[in-house]
Amino acid sequence: MSKAKKEYKRVTVKSLVDMKTSGEKISMLTAYDYTMAKIVDGAGVDVILVGDSASNVMAGHETTLPITLDQMIYHASSVIRAIDRALVVVDLPFGSYQSDPKEALRSAIRIMKESGAHSVKLEGGKEIKESIKRILNAGIPVMGHLGLTPQSIYKFGTYTVRAKEEEEAEQLIKDAKMLERTGCFAIVLEKIPASLAKQVADSVSIPIIGIGAGPYVDGQVLVLHDMLGMTHEFNPRFLRRYLNLYEDMTNAMKQYVSDVKSLDFPNESEQY
Ligand SMILES: Nc1nc(=O)c2c([nH]1)NC[C@@H]1CN(c3ccc(C(=O)N[C@@H](CCC(=O)O)C(=O)O)cc3)CN21
Ligand SMILES: CC(C)C(=O)C(=O)O
Ligand SMILES: [Mg+2]
């Protein structure tokens, strides 16, 4: 199949910072496979996150903790083969960067080398500063992630909103400023009060991308399967569903079953 060369200008780390400066909001969605990533990229989504939420959405685990670096590389390489325009960010999975900065750099290099991704994301603040420095020194762009960091779910105990108390809010602002100073190109803020997210977005010059962090930030991210309505049992307040695919797909599959049983499918034009 021949296809005309795409005219798209690629999204870069620099263009995201320019978007914050100019006030254009950044759109980001997850993708874990080639077919979905092709649709997300073609729709004009600026950033594709190969999230460790693949652990939940793709593999059916309860948390993000079990997914491995090899599995993240598999997902990321599938996504990379699909994209013409979007910037691709890959989550470093739990256990691939927390031990020490050298391990963090080794993991980031494996992702970049084996998947062709453009950048990595790590969860945490001051405790991972040296790891971020190492990765940045190797020329790998880093996105931060603060607030509800799901790899720490057993420390938090629940997926409830973070940083409602003054002490955690102050530490979060400090961490965001540190991530900017260290050289991160953007930060995800997950499930924190909208007013705190605004304060963070106003106090750093790198883009702040929110999920459950309100409107006063520089961009929004959602898990693709959530916004398409495929994960019908996942109902956080921050989620807006743009389709009800769980229902639509179920109906389509029921129709297929019925057509097979009734000998309606295949018909005369659907055979050789
Ligand atoms: N499908 C999916 N979507 C996500 O957004 C997502 C994942 N998986 N896996 C990794 C993390 C975990 N995330 C989560 C998980 C739970 C809530 C949540 O709000 N859950 C419930 C209970 C909250 C509570 O205990 O107070 C809710 O009712 O909203 C939010 C984000 C975000 N990420
Ligand atoms: C929810 C987003 C920010 C994420 O980290 C993921 O999908 O893994
Ligand atoms: Mg993640």
From TrEMBL:
<dbReference type="GO" id="GO:0032259">
    <property type="term" value="P:methylation"/>
</dbReference>
<feature type="binding site">
    <location>
        <begin position="52"/>
        <end position="53"/>
    </location>
    <ligand>
        <name>3-methyl-2-oxobutanoate</name>
    </ligand>
</feature>
<keyword id="KW-0479">Metal-binding</keyword>
<feature type="binding site">
    <location>
        <position position="123"/>
    </location>
    <ligand>
        <name>Mg(2+)</name>
    </ligand>
</feature>
<keyword id="KW-0460">Magnesium</keyword>
<comment type="pathway">
    <text>Cofactor biosynthesis; (R)-pantothenate biosynthesis; (R)-pantoate from 3-methyl-2-oxobutanoate: step 1/2.</text>
</comment>
<comment type="similarity">
    <text>Belongs to the PanB family.</text>
</comment>
<feature type="binding site">
    <location>
        <position position="121"/>
    </location>
    <ligand>
        <name>3-methyl-2-oxobutanoate</name>
    </ligand>
</feature>
<feature type="active site" description="Proton acceptor">
    <location>
        <position position="190"/>
    </location>
</feature>
<dbReference type="GO" id="GO:0008168">
    <property type="term" value="F:methyltransferase activity"/>
</dbReference>
<feature type="binding site">
    <location>
        <position position="91"/>
    </location>
    <ligand>
        <name>Mg(2+)</name>
    </ligand>
</feature>
<keyword id="KW-0808">Transferase</keyword>
<protein>
    <recommendedName>
        <fullName>3-methyl-2-oxobutanoate hydroxymethyltransferase</fullName>
        <ecNumber>2.1.2.11</ecNumber>
    </recommendedName>
</protein>
<dbReference type="Pfam" id="PF02548">
    <property type="entry name" value="Pantoate_transf"/>
</dbReference>
<feature type="binding site">
    <location>
        <position position="91"/>
    </location>
    <ligand>
        <name>3-methyl-2-oxobutanoate</name>
    </ligand>
</feature>
<dbReference type="GO" id="GO:0015940">
    <property type="term" value="P:pantothenate biosynthetic process"/>
</dbReference>
<dbReference type="GO" id="GO:0005737">
    <property type="term" value="C:cytoplasm"/>
</dbReference>
<dbReference type="InterPro" id="IPR040442">
    <property type="entry name" value="Pyrv_kinase-like_dom_sf"/>
</dbReference>
<keyword id="KW-0566">Pantothenate biosynthesis</keyword>
<comment type="subunit">
    <text>Homodecamer; pentamer of dimers.</text>
</comment>
<dbReference type="GO" id="GO:0003864">
    <property type="term" value="F:3-methyl-2-oxobutanoate hydroxymethyltransferase activity"/>
</dbReference>
<keyword id="KW-0963">Cytoplasm</keyword>
<dbReference type="GO" id="GO:0000287">
    <property type="term" value="F:magnesium ion binding"/>
</dbReference>
<comment type="function">
    <text>Catalyzes the reversible reaction in which hydroxymethyl group from 5,10-methylenetetrahydrofolate is transferred onto alpha-ketoisovalerate to form ketopantoate.</text>
</comment>
<dbReference type="InterPro" id="IPR003700">
    <property type="entry name" value="Pantoate_hydroxy_MeTrfase"/>
</dbReference>
<keyword id="KW-0489">Methyltransferase</keyword>
<dbReference type="InterPro" id="IPR015813">
    <property type="entry name" value="Pyrv/PenolPyrv_kinase-like_dom"/>
</dbReference>
<feature type="binding site">
    <location>
        <position position="52"/>
    </location>
    <ligand>
        <name>Mg(2+)</name>
    </ligand>
</feature>
